[in-house]
Amino acid sequence: MKRLRALALMVLGAIVLSGCTLVAPNASPVRIAVSKVPYGLLNQTIPGTNNARVRFITQPVYLVDATAHLVASSRIVPSPPALATVIGQLLLGPTAIETSLGYTSALPPNMVLISATVQNEIGYFNFATPLSRLSKAQQLHAVGQLVLTAYAVGAARGIVIKVAGVTQSLLLPSGAHGTLVTEKNFQSLLN
Q1: What are residue 120's phi and psi, to 5 degrees?
Q2: Quick one: CA dihedral 40, 46, 48, 52, positive or negative?
Q3: For the whole model, what pTM was predicted?
Q4: pLDDT over 90 percentage in the chain
Q5: Are 178 and 185 a contacting pair, CB within 8 Å?
Q6: Exposure winner among 57, 105, 165, 177, fewest CB in 10 A?
Q7: Are 174 and 161 in contact (CB under 8 A)?
Q8: What one-character-per-residue DSSP string does 85-114 give?
Q9: In angstroms, how far is CA 125 from the centroid of its own chain?
Q10: Paired residues of 123 in beta bridges
Q11: 157 phi/psi in degrees, rounded to 5
């Protein structure tokens, strides 16, 4: 009986305390004076640096639309855009709004990008897993997404995909395979 009473008191106390809060709610936002914002958070430069600034631009990434064509969508990235940053945004997949419009990604959601660089206008990707595990249609769309997105970042001569440092043979829309694929190879997948 004592245990039951103690348990009932603890539950009652928990219910009473759950209604309490340490922060008083306000019915409307409270304006904070600029002079009271600490650490220089409102400065035009990054606090603690030698007047460094970050500028952002929109960069196209390619997704698969409802008609199975590749379409450009915008992402905000730091300027100048780095291939690894833009491909990182592509690997995040479509946003909630894009998903509601029927956009998808052929790239696996758990795909791990080890590195992505542009050298002599060729994009070099190193992934943890191969795209060959995907169906042929998904492979075509996935490679198309990568090559078109990389083209917009500066890989004008094409891309090379490696897995653990081994160059992969990539499926082309023509049915052939190649190790260096260009955006011209995937123009037929655009809407």
Answers
A1: 55, 45
A2: negative
A3: 0.73
A4: 59
A5: yes
A6: 165
A7: no
A8: HHHHHHHT---HHHHHTT-B-SS-TT--EE
A9: 16
A10: 118, 159
A11: -95, -5
